Amino acid sequence: MNFTSFLTKAFPSNLISMMKDGCILVTHQDKERVTLRNLSLRTKEHMWWVGFIAPAFLIYTVIFLGPVISSFYYSMTNWNGFTKTMDFIGFSNYAHMFTDPTFMKAMRNTFVFAGLIVIFQNGLAIPLALALDSKIKTKSLLKVVFFAPAILSPLVVGYTWLYIYEPEGMLNMLLRAIGLGGWEQTWLGDPKFALYAIVVMVLWQYVGYSMIIFLANLQTIPGDLYEAADIDGAGGYRKFRYITFPLLAPSMTINVVLASIGSLKAFDIIYVTTKGGPFQATETITTLLFTTAFKKDNFGYGTSMGVIMFLIIFLISVVQILLLRRREVGES
Amino acid sequence: MRRRGLGLLAMTMMLVLVLSACGGKNNETTEASAPASGTAPASQSTEPSASPAEVVELKVTGYKSGTELGAIPELNEKFMKENPGIKVKYEGMPGGQFKEFIKTRFAAGDASDVILMHPGLSDVISYGKAGYLLDLAGESWISNFSEASLKATSLEGKTYAIPNDMNVMGVYYNKEIFEKLNLATPKNWDEFVAAAEAIKQSGVLPIAIGNNDGWMTLAALYTVAPSLVYGSTPDFDTKLNEGTATFAGAWDDTVNKWFSLNDKGYLTEKSTGVNLDQAQKAFATGKAAMYIDGSWSLAGIKKTNPDLKLGMFAMPSNAAGQDVVASAAVGTTFAINKDTKVADAAKKYLEFWSQADNQKVWAKSQQGFMTINGETGDIDEAFKEIADVVASGHSYPFLDQGWRYGGAATTEMMTSAQGVYLKVITPAVMLENMDKAWADAARIK
Q1: Which residues of B fall within a CB distance of 8 Å from A80?
Q2: Is B160 in the A-facing interface, judged by CB distances under 8 Å?
Q3: Is the ipTM of this complex over 0.95?
Q4: Which residues lie closer than 8 Å to B133 by C-beta, 6 or more apart?
Q5: Chain A partners within 8 Å of B131 (Cβ)
């Protein structure tokens, strides 16, 4: 996939032509040093969109690009976050990171967390979408019910689940009520369960979100494919395996990529429930980054973790898009 | 042509809208308005000289908001009445995020004129050292404060803030349970352990604690350490800051004693899954006999159970025959931003806060002890016992106030404490981890 084809996919064609005109406009200005007044009428007509992009681009540069680029610089300093001076220390933050057992543990936790979420979020969303694509009477209501958690703030979800997971909370009460009192746990206070307990919270919140995307995709699959399969005598499994699943590829790409990015950078839901504890059992790169930069006053080191995380997410997303796109059929 | 003009106008307006939205503050802003009694318009009409142009706005930011605001609005109004030329605008936010918030504000050169800050070497003093705060040592009203309290805001002859109130940390106890079991206030470690054992035998949890973030163990160790560490090595902090002392070696007795309470079953079980609110509730409702926290939580306990008969004693970690040492420290401090454009107004504001009458109102609203020389203030009945210990001179500040890398050490202390409760590491390893975190923090300097 080269850049132009990416652009064609990403933007409608009329926008592309406008952007190309813009390039011509710039080259004109460079070569012939024409003034605005002398520009051809055609070019002049397209001038307006520069005005539309400029404010957004300015804001984007000031509040996004600028800080991102300065982060690369801060990651090579020993800044503590508030002094007016700092030393440039090259790559030693990065070198330290890979001998830091806490960082390694956080890295492992991050991948376990993200892996579980990507697998189960999609694994649960597909059957749900299939179920809601059938002729259930309460279909519309169920769609809303399953999607509702996705619109909540992770903080709300976190505080709600704290009540469910606490030692005298709903989950333990339920276990006791059905005679499984022996299974009671301090779910978020036990390093054996804490990370998985948070995974369950995230799944509860976002399975409905993935489901809606799959559902939209399911509705684009032509019915005659299934009719043909029926005539060929294919059963339910074969129809799913050879028609539904392959044709869900586009939404699979979106869901896998979104779930990966979302879970790799998850912070609020972890911070509000366990703050990375107990004893680093749920410490991910994001929580460690926050603790290092803001609690331990090591802003430079924290920033370098942020840069590493940026690279990890970037690489994973690119690889996923390239691999999953190949599965998609019917693409030009 | 006309269309383009309109488009330009629309764009400009959009830009302005977006920018102003960015500039908006999402913190709670309590604008102290003029008293509703009508005195303000009257004074304005009698003093035509107080034209709007002469009124300076003094921005004050602090980590007290909502129910914690205490007497801040009341004192601000009083101040404005005394100083009609100054309009105080107080911006308060919850304490949890304040440290991060004010750090970014300072770094961005956007901090308020007067800032409520935490005391100590790794907080207000470090900002002072970094050149963000005005040195107040030369002001006449500084001498109103006790020397002990000024230590929390001063370094090398410079004073960066005024210390407003003192807090104590100690052991809250349920007086009814103690009376029922015929237990007197323990005066040394053996008596303390004996009391805990007796309470356990009676079927009540001796000490409620929640360690979902480890903070309550930090608080507990702050109360245990003064007798054990600073009794024998009074200059431990100095040595630690110089790098000639480590936690391992000096703190072993402290952590071993504390965690032995857990081994004997005196603490809340599986406390890493319990939070502070739950522990406090267990104490307030009589399910636990003791609870270790600061004086600031008295209001919360009383709110849960107004009928609870409770008191607080200083943690008796000392051996028999030695003195009990209380953990007491300055709670809030007011500092002036060095870059403020209204330094005179800011100084007037701090002078106002340095007067005994005003401090008395403030200390009472915070359930705190007073920092003004020769003033005791109104202390709640529950704090009588520990106040006597403080008054006798046997008190020590909260420990991290004297630590250069307090943030790093306390963060590690809280994390590693969880590891000890979970039996993943030993108390000795916890101290090693703290030394490691300290060395890491020192490495970047």
Answers
A1: 444-445
A2: no
A3: no
A4: B124, B127, B160, B161, B335, B336, B337, B338
A5: 84
